[in-house]
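Lay summary

Proteins are chains of building blocks that fold into shapes. Our project writes down both the chain and a compact code for its shape. Here are two examples, one after the other.
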Amino acid sequence: MERKKLTNRQIRRLAKKYIRGTASAEESALLHEWYNTVNPGTTEVILVDTPTLSREVREEIFAGLQKRIEQEKGRVLELPRRSVQWWHAAAVVLLLAGGIAFYRSLPVPVKKEEPSYTAQVAEEVSAPQTARAVITLAGGRRLYLDSIPEGTIAREGNTRVTKKADGVVYESPADAKEVGYNVLTVPRGSRVVNLTLSDGSRVWLNAESSMRYPVAFTGSSRNVEVTGEAYFEISKDPQRRFYISSRGLTTEVLGTHFNINTYADESAMKVTLLEGSVRVRDTRGGQVMLKPGQQAKVNGGDPDIQVEDKVDIEAVIAWKNDYFMMKGTDIGALARQMARWYDVQVVFEGEIPDRKFGGSISRNVNLSTMLEVLRESGINSRLEQKKVIIL
């Protein structure tokens, strides 16, 4: 990319790539160069992690930024300087007051007052570090993925089950006769698990989710059962359609990419299509065909399946990309996401605040960082071991 003045759109795009670790060296350099020209207290902010710089250099950069004159026009957010927090090992993107601020940690000591309502934290709650998932084999034996080395971990008849760096893979011969079923369970407080089925279809399971599936697909159709949330990339097979059953919903596909969210504690079940086409049916007889970018939604008390157009796909699959994405998310929904991911209890001390959020936050930050970010948007809380109390 040519070194020139960056537009706001280019800045946002580069920031997202940098935070996700996909930016090239040249793109990172451009982002650093832009960062050195802005005042983080009054315009769109990117706090970048620069571990190769000495503490003295980092402190000098921080001090210089505080004095700079606003150079970017058309800014989307004004933050008071007290709001510019420097969290260690955090990568946070947060939308506040209708604007966007990008945060990236710099371990610079900043003096700040301790809020009077903050309780002493007995222990930090870290983001999940491993996939604490369990595979229950057809015979009942359990495989705990976080304690098994990579390689072949089981054989189910002619099907080989292999643990790899990027997930678990089932491999079976074309003439496999097995009809046994395995169950993959991803508990609360576990990282996302990637599973490749015997037909080559790939599935990502979110925390507090499970899937029951055959070790090999042998019939005229391919059938699995899901609870919680899963993202699918289904291999095309014109001879055998793929069916996913989940809490009374059946999603029928041939070959496509889509997301299913049917957590029991959510107000609605949702199937969101990214690519291809799917048919969604429920036990009450309703059915719809989805096109890419559409979402089927089933509310508990609504007899019809609602279809929403132009859904924000990035927000729907943010969990798969290690982000909390809050596009109009209310505090109740965000609390449920936090509870599943950090394996904590979230309770409200009073009435549930009528607030909606936007932007995104890395799911790799510690819980205390997440709560500090919420405090910056006006949601106070305290952490008592494994319980979050929202005030």
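And here is the second example, written the same way.
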Amino acid sequence: MNLYEINKTITYIFICILITGCSISNSVEKPYKFEEESFIKKPNINSKFNQYPREFNILISDDSKLQKEISLGLIANYFYYKINKDYAPKINIKKINYDKNNSKCFEGINPSKFTFIVLTDKNFNISSRCKSSLEKLNGIQIIAEDAYKIDAPKLYAFEVKEGDKEIIINHAILHNKTKAIILDQNEDEHLYSLLMNWKKSGGKVLESKKINKKNISELIPETLYINESNNRLNKIENIIKAKVSSTPRTRQDAEVLVLSTKLDIARSLKPSLEYNYGERISVYLIPSWNNKDTYEKKELDLEGTIFIEMPWVVGLNQDFNINEEVNRTRAFAIGYDAYEIFLLLSSKTKVDYFGLTGKITVKQSKINRKDILIKVDEGKLVPIGY
């Protein structure tokens, strides 16, 4: 099935959801390798598909673009197995009813069947009766962007949050980059969490600042004490009444600069670091998920930077059979991997899945995901591990 047909199917699904709810029924040979590790690879499921569920449910919590993209990824993987493995269970799709006057949270689905619940809203105001019904379901709750999490023993939680700070911190500390300057564009609590995690891992925070549009040009000179050096030079010139040729003295204690920001700002701050004589300082980046920029084939402004990301978003799918016309959104990757996890749970196969969102391990009723570490080498995005 091509991209047009998949998109048409998704549009049809959401129209059905908005009206009444509906149901439908209806390879990798040379994976990217680095140090003998694959970064996107379909798991080898040997189970017979006739033993898999013949029906499952999808519950949508709202009509947002994010939910649509997650569903697009889920349905895209559904059609992969339909075409390649002839496995096409019936899908029952329904939107959760938030009306507290309605006694039923959802209608038209069999609650005993495996259920995907797509959750992207932090405020999940439902009746106690509806909440009780959801808690009894068996399946996967797909949780994106710190959305509400249902406390249910039989609902696996596939939580995909913004970049795992611990991976960045552990890599830096392991390479003896302990003394850090941290610049963060997010809310105060995000910066506080980053500071606490850095200190907890044995690092030292020399300085931290919030990034905003007004202070971008001055951030690096201020944190490296370039401005102070220039002020000292001006005082000397005023005393001797003559111009002095000199190189500003930058701070010598900083070993690493940690950026938690959008790509366009990171592309500005990294060259600014080098311009202000900070080329010896290592740079780590936690890209913002609100970022709308895409990665370029040559990220020259980020040369040497180490950052965390989803393999799908940075394009590590050279021989992976997904239509290249599909936008590389994180939401698509989340939905795609959720369906793969459903198959792994159904087959009871205990393997690591190298998915679009990262390395996924299912163990003891828990789904763990790791972002991939990327280093910019001569402008190219090179995977260096998890």
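What can we say about the second shape? DSSP finds nine helices and 18 strands in the chain.
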